[in-house]
């Protein structure tokens, strides 16, 4: 690893301090937003169309842009992936995980929200993102593409029965 400020070799993997310029180097989790869109006792699952983990079920969502608030990112991602403006509900939780991208394992902080579809909403999938969609029982979900989604679904079940 090298210092992102001066390019000198770092004495150790981050967190580290560059010996050449004194810059403190950290590896921070990238923020993402996801949605558990609920209808009755089911949630909307998408079949991943691309790597990593193509062919596995996931929740709609993605990376936050710059200083975009995770709630705003969740609404934007639903618009991009599903073609709808969701009704955003409460934050289910924040979950630390990883995402493999460009031959690197990135730490991520997944912010997962409950959501619903407005009455009469019609979903139009972005086929570059999702090969298919289905409504799955929230009480018995399959293993999801990312462990953070599994944990969020468990927590969402608890929120929904209170």
From TrEMBL:
It comes from the Bacteria. Residues 28-157 form the Nudix hydrolase domain. Keywords: Hydrolase. InterPro entries: NUDIX_hydrolase-like_dom_sf, NUDIX_hydrolase_CS, NUDIX_hydrolase_dom. PANTHER family: NUDIX HYDROLASE 23, NUDIX HYDROLASE 23, CHLOROPLASTIC. This is ADP-ribose pyrophosphatase YjhB (NUDIX family).
């Amino acid at each position: 690893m090298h210092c992102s400020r001066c390019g000198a070799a770092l004495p150790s993997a981050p967190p580290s301090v560059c010996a050449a310029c004194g810059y403190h180097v950290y590896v921070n989790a990238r923020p993402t937003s996801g949605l558990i869109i609920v209808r009755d006792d089911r949630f909307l699952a998408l079949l991943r169309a691309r790597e990593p983990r193509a062919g596995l079920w996931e929740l709609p969502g993605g990376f936050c842009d710059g200083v975009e608030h995770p709630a705003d990112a969740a609404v934007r991602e639903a618009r991009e992936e599903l073609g709808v403006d969701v009704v955003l509900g409460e934050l289910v939780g924040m979950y630390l995980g990883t995402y493999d991208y460009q031959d690197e394992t990135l730490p991520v902080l997944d912010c997962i929200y409950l959501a619903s579809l407005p009455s009469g909403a019609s979903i139009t999938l972005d086929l570059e993102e999702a090969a298919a969609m289905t409504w799955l029982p929230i009480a018995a979900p399959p293993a999801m593409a990312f462990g953070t989604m599994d944990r969020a679904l468990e927590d969402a079940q608890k929120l929904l029965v209170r």
